[in-house]
Amino acid sequence: KPVGLNPCPGIQDRGGIWKFKADKLNQKFPADGVQVATGLRDLDAMDWSTSTGLYAVMHDRNGTAAQFPDLVSKDEGENISDELDFIPAKGVAHMGWPFTYWDGKRNIRLMAPEYGGNNKTQPPAGLYVTPVAAFYPSHSPLDLMFYKATQFPAHYRGGAFIVMHGGNGGHAAPGGYDVKFVPFANGKAGAPETFADG
């Protein structure tokens, strides 16, 4: 069975977000930047909420049940979620990859099998973020936009639209190829809704 490298070289200069000066030329990566997030897997989109700050959507693990069938059943593998995460302005937020994943059905973070997980073991508290919203089974978020206009009804104002292209195949549950909407009220996210499908 695969055993994960620790420390993982994949998150030294990949799987993170860095902030750079907008008015300085010839900056070098990563030396001239300030890292604000790590532990991201296949991040495709970020956007600003005018009320709370920066958010990002990422794809999480694929094929975990096939790779570790004695630890994660096919049904349990379907609960591994893609995430909408808040990126704080200060510090370096850790989103968990590759050490952990988010179980969207149980709403808990679990250790990845490569790092001693068995679909039951949780990491120590406080090391990794809790997603703002989880999408499972994985439907591969491609874009994110906070609604800043007023044409749609009040329910949509300030909320997040997330475009999905559908998972990588083999999912037991149908879905994907849709647009999800996450309502926000007073800076807090509500449950994801399907805005458009098909």
Kindly describe this structure.
This protein is mainly beta and 198 residues long. It is 4% helix and 32% strand. It contains two helices and 15 strands. The protein has helices at residues 64-67, 74-77; strands at residues 17-19, 34-38, 43-49, 53-58, 82-87, 93-94, 100-103, 108-111, 133-135, 141-146, 160-164, 179-182, 184-185, 188-189, 193-196. The strands form five sheets. Strands 3-4-5-9 form a four-stranded antiparallel sheet, with no helix packed on it. It has a four-stranded antiparallel sheet with strand order 10-11-12-15, with no helix packed on it. Strand 3 (43-49) and strand 4 form a beta hairpin. It is globular and about 50 Å long. The model has no long low-confidence stretch (mean pLDDT 92).
List the helices and strands and how they pair.
Elements: E1 17-19, E2 34-38, E3 43-49, E4 53-58, H1 64-67, H2 74-77, E5 82-87, E6 93-94, E7 100-103, E8 108-111, E9 133-135, E10 141-146, E11 160-164, E12 179-182, E13 184-185, E14 188-189, E15 193-196
Parallel strand pairs: 2-6
Antiparallel strand pairs: 1-2, 3-4, 4-5, 5-9, 7-8, 10-11, 11-12, 12-15, 13-14
List keywords for this structure.
198 residues, mainly beta, four-stranded antiparallel sheet
Number of strands: 15
Low-confidence segments:
none
Terminal-residue CA separation = 38 Å
- Coarse morphology: globular
* Rg for CA atoms: 17 Å
Alpha plus pi helix count = 2
* Sheet of most strands: 4 strands, antiparallel
Order of helices and strands: EEEEHHEEEEEEEEEEE
Beta-strand portion reads 25-35%
Summing up helix and strand content along with how strands pair, one would put the structural category as mainly beta
Q: In which range does the helix fraction lie?
A: under 10%
Oligomeric state of shown chains: single chain
Q: Kindly state the mean pLDDT as a whole number?
A: 92
